[in-house]
Amino acid sequence: MFVNRTFELDFLRQRYESGRAELIVVYGRRRVGKTRLLQEFVKDKKHIYLIADVSENILDSFSRVVSRQYRFVRFDNWDDFFEFLSAVDERVVVVLDEFQYLYKVDKAFPTILQRWWEVLRNSKIMMILCGSTISTIYKISLGYGSALYGRKTAELEVKPLKFADIKEFFPNYSARELVEVYAVLGGVPRYLEEFEDTDIMTNIKNKILSRTSFLYNEPMNLLFEEFKDYSRYFAILNAIAEGATRFGEISDKSRVPQNKLPKYLMTLEQIGIIKRTIPVTEKKSRRAIYRIADNFYRFWFRYVYPNRSFLEMNEIDYVLDLIKDQFNAFVGQAFEDVAAEFLVSRLRCPVGRWWYKDVEIDLVGLGKETYFFEVKWKDLSYGEAARILRELEEKPKKLELAGKRNMD
């Protein structure tokens, strides 16, 4: 299913219509819909769509694909391939999907492309390099000092869908059910496609907790592929899932030394799995906390990873009962994100959490006026709602006090 992606398609179409040579890096996590986006983009355009892999004879595969659209060609080396492209005298989109594999097979590939781009930059070629292994993508194309740094004409990160987009996957779900499924799966299209039009707990049981399901080992498989020292990333994510949110707590619980922890945290944040958060009123702060930003990873490390022994013994109902007992509390954090997304679209200003010592405000909006919100995922009586409102009215006084102390 292809949903939304209006911004991404408009961006690519504008680049295409420029008529100039383009070298664009499209990147994002696996399963997020990059290939589907590019297929949608090129469907009405002259294009060469090439999917890379780690085979030694990848150029033979490329030769066969190109020969079906042009004259018969045979690429014995990368120079042959790029020389062919340099002779193409028409607007054509060339997609190298999973291009990080080309680097795995031949470490010289980025340098060869860098050299040939000096020729192709005067052509009509629109070349799109699409990759999923984000740590490798940064190394060869995005990071300062990489072979393609300064050569690429643009970059586009394809991010998970927002909450507002997922209703198209579940047209029969209520608003409550949509929040629940978003809390479990997040906005990754491939994961959303796994769930069927049935209740949330049945989907969790059959599509996540079952050892034969696609999602059962998904985070583990992706971390194995992304990182060589995956065990430390596992330890860090497990520590955060168990409630360690501050730097020192994460180091202690994961047993990753504090002098090495920043590298791992930065990488996990870079690929969108965790998020470093500071109070919304501050630009810099030592009071940062970390949380798992990807909802499915958060669910998996909370309920699947620590209970794998039970699940491997097919004790699915036992784990499902654990989930049912804690589910409303679990959904609550994701509901804050849903509320923040909604408020940003309405208030058109920064919205985020605020805390100081033992005082927390779920969401604060910093517009021409300052807005304060408490977000609760539970049924409240009138009395409970009134009490929460009274407490909220007192909290901004603490915010003002904290601001004065930070200025001193």
TrEMBL record:
Top-level taxon: Archaea
Domain DUF234, first and last residues per copy: 300-388
Location of the ATPase domain: 2-195
Gene Ontology molecular function terms on file: ATP binding
SUPFAM superfamilies: P-loop containing nucleoside triphosphate hydrolases (SSF52540), Winged helix' DNA-binding domain (SSF46785)
Pfam families in the cross-refs: ATPase_2, DUF234
Annotated InterPro entries: ATPase_dom, DUF234, P-loop_NTPase, WH-like_DNA-bd_sf, WH_DNA-bd_sf
Name this polypeptide is given: ATPase
Organism: Archaeoglobus veneficus (strain DSM 11195 / SNP6)
